[in-house]
Amino acid sequence: MKIVMMTRWNIPCGVSLHAELIGREWVKMGHDLQVLAPAELEGYQCDVDEPYVKRCYTLRNKPGHFFDPEAFLKRDCDIFVVQNLEILPMEDLFKVYPFIRERARTVFVVHEGKPPKDSIFYEFDWDAVVCFDERYKRFLKDIYSDDKIKVIPYPCHPVMHGDKVEARRKLGLPLDKKIIFNYGIGIYRHLHLLPILQRINEDYPLIFLTLTHIQDWYNLFEAVKGRYPFIELRRGDIPIGELYTYLHASDALLVHKDSAEAIVVPSTAYLCLGSGCPILAYNTNFFETFDKEVIKYSGLAEAIVKIFEDRESVRDTVRIAEQYARQNSSHEIAKRFIELFVSLAETTRHGAAA
């Protein structure tokens, strides 16, 4: 099957992660994938692009705007997938969209957490609209017909076990301390938790392993490291393979995000559930669809002590998380998309025959 997907790619965000997890599985399955991705002006790509990726436009309302219509008009495909329409150059896409519709079935993957305000968003006619859970479906029913809306969960990275001792030696980390890990573009959200970690450190010697490619956040943690010497600060991008080494080395992954006004999903959790490292998640709407797959906390100290003492409930969480990651692995979710694509293609053929 020939699939073209318009999406962010190879950057640290939930849209890109979703696209990469299922897109790479489609390639493994033998499908012909072409990714039409934006030029990322921020300059923080995680990896070198694959040969099937073409960067041919900028995101909406970004400086240096450009859009290459030929990249869309000259690509033959069976299925045209759009991820997170609201952030894309909708006006430019809408101009070429009728020509795309002439030769392909179109699928919109919704990352928007509430109805967008821009009217052009509602001008696109899709063959199918995919959302991650019933929360999205409730507001989408006011926009699209019920038969077009399909629920396909957000994919998980495949389960990948590792050895804690080997991982720590590889990363140059001590074997005799507990490790709380946090990483990425949102590490600044954890600054106010440092006094709590300091108190825990008195009874359970620990390292707060912090990794980011954002220079400002690196500088911020560097500035407070003198006050909180248990911080182990590292700088740079972190490809997924290396990320799992950090997870295998750690006793917990800390994810602290305040509630959002819109519907949200925690892409970090889906990426890390299959690592065997328990996830400490601040109890907000980011994690409202999870039950026992993560350790939700309102009081951080109590949750950390539970992990450090290796209680049975923590081991249960890790087992449940792994089971969830297997059931919703990138391979399984990619297959569900292909099943949807096949059904759309068959509908087209039957319609033509009729």
Describe the structure.
The protein is an alpha/beta fold and 354 residues long. It folds into 2 domains: 2-154 and 330-353, 3-Layer(aba) Sandwich (Rossmann fold); 164-327, 3-Layer(aba) Sandwich (Rossmann fold). 38% of the residues lie in helices and 18% in strands. It has 12 helices and 13 strands. The protein has helices at residues 14-28, 70-73, 90-103, 134-140, 164-171, 194-203, 215-224, 240-249, 267-272, 300-308, 312-327, 330-353, and strands at residues 2-6, 32-38, 53-57, 79-83, 105-109, 128-131, 149-151, 178-183, 206-212, 231-235, 252-255, 279-282, 295-297. The strands form 2 sheets. Strands 3-2-1-4-5-6-7 form a 7-stranded parallel beta sheet. α9 links the parallel β11 and β12 (279-282). α1 (14-28) crosses α12 (330-353). The chain starts with a strand and ends with a helix. Mean pLDDT is 94; it is low at 349-354.
